[in-house]
Amino acid sequence: MRLTEKQISSLPPRALHLTRAYLDTVSLVNFAKVLPHFHHHISESRLSAVFVPHWQHSFISLVAWRQHVVWFVAACCAALAANLFQFLDDKSVDIKTDLKAISKYIQPFFLVVAMPLICQLRDRVFPGTGGTGIPQVIAALRIPHGPKRRHQVLSWEILIGKIILLTMGLFAGMTIGREGPSVQVAACFLYLSDSWGKFQMSLVDRGLILAGAAAGITGAFNTPIAGVIFAVEEIGRSFEKDCQSTIVRTAVVAAVISWQFYGNYNFYNGEVRARTDIASELFAIVPIGIVLGLLGGLFSQSLLVATKSYKRLYPKYPILTAFALGLLLAGLALATDGTSLGSGMGKCEEVLKNEETVPIYTSFAIAAGNWICLLSGIPGGLFDPALSTGASLGQMLANSSLNWTTFGDYEAVVLLSMVAYFSGVAQAPLTGAVIVIEMTNAQYLTTQLFLVSICAYECSKLVCPIGLYDGLADMI
């Protein structure tokens, strides 16, 4: 007999704890008899799905197979969304190049028009789609599971709106990445699949969301290990033993899907054989970690402070404020000859893969453009802009009169700078090191990259005690 669909959301946390403990020794049927008042809130099928400890225990049942199929479809959809964002990002770069060939004023004009338009659509049509997406996923874990409780950060409306508004931002030339939106969209797919899968409670509480986060990073960068680490380090902030299998399997599915579209590729440079001089590596690692970690921390802290003031000002003058930010982005694009346009991924490839010399103001242009976009609250991430800023700073160090290449070759200095700045901004040292190692196959720099990442992380905390994602999640 199927009862009301309020299901598990109607139970208080203490009741959930007691029922789980009770079911360890009492069958489901006896449990329903002993506590009949729960019978008014939960269907028997839902109880079976929630409290079965592992899918393997009932692998041959139709319920288990339904859960497997639903999970697999959701994981595939999450990976496809991340690859769609990458495709759109690549196409936006091509369009930007074509428009610049016609006139350098076209793309800045789009920025001025697109910023208030995206902000109005975000507020009026797709509420909950603003921001990078990662703070929203962190906030979702803080909200108890239940109908409409997490709807403000994970819903079908947010999923669709995030895709539409991110696409508009990419083609308008906003200085945004796609990784944060990939995480939120993927988390939506996995979490909302519970409507059909009726998964166990540990997955509904945290596991599906963490699996979605892992799939988002994996699909965006083709980095399954970094995806899993990111889900644990930055989203969950703890090791989820009950959910580890689902998180890893979802990341693997996302990686396989990405391979079908782009092959088993590496971002930025394919394969890096660089390494620093073993005897003098600390002379490069420590200064790079300190300086770029502090710069990343200042970026995050200034953004958190400015965002609090912006949230008070924006409701009073929404169109005017958004229009002003669009003008700032347009002026920055004109002043830097278009360097600030886009995610910056192309600039990073120029620096690392082709060793081309980019203008000295590249790091400032990308960081400033991304700072303005993040302040506005439009959908868009910071991974690519942060890595690109770090790469351009690394080139400045490698080509400076201090001759940093004495301590390691050009590629080594650039990679160390990428990891240091990213770890300073995101304060995710494990993710920062692993994601660059996987993207570039720079296995010979593993120890050095972890050292510079930890150094940058510790220095960043000195100026930004609360991490950027945590601080933004607290404002939701």
Write up what this structure looks like:
- It is globular and about 65 Å long.
- The longest helix has 41 residues, at 62-102.
- The chain starts with 12 loop residues before the first helix and ends with a helix.
- With 476 residues, the chain is mainly alpha-helical.
- The protein is 68% helix and 0% strand.
- The chain contains 21 helices and no strands.
- Residues 1-9 and 13-53 have low confidence and may be disordered.
- The chain has helices at residues 13-23, 28-34, 44-51, 62-102, 106-124, 134-142, 156-172, 179-192, 194-197, 201-221, 224-236, 244-262, 282-313, 318-335, 345-352, 362-376, 383-398, 410-426, 429-440, 446-463, 468-474.
- Helix 4 (62-102) packs across helix 12 (244-262).
CA radius of gyration is 23 Å
Binned strand content: under 5%
Contiguous uncertain segments of 5+ residues: 1-9, 13-53
- Into which percent range does the helicity of residues fall? 55-70%
Mean pLDDT: 83
Topology pattern, helix = H, strand = E: HHHHHHHHHHHHHHHHHHHHH
Q: How many strands?
A: 0
Which oligomeric state applies?
single chain
N-to-C span:
40 Å
How many DSSP helices? 21
Biggest sheet character: none
Broad shape? globular
Which class best fits the helix and strand makeup?
Answer: mainly alpha
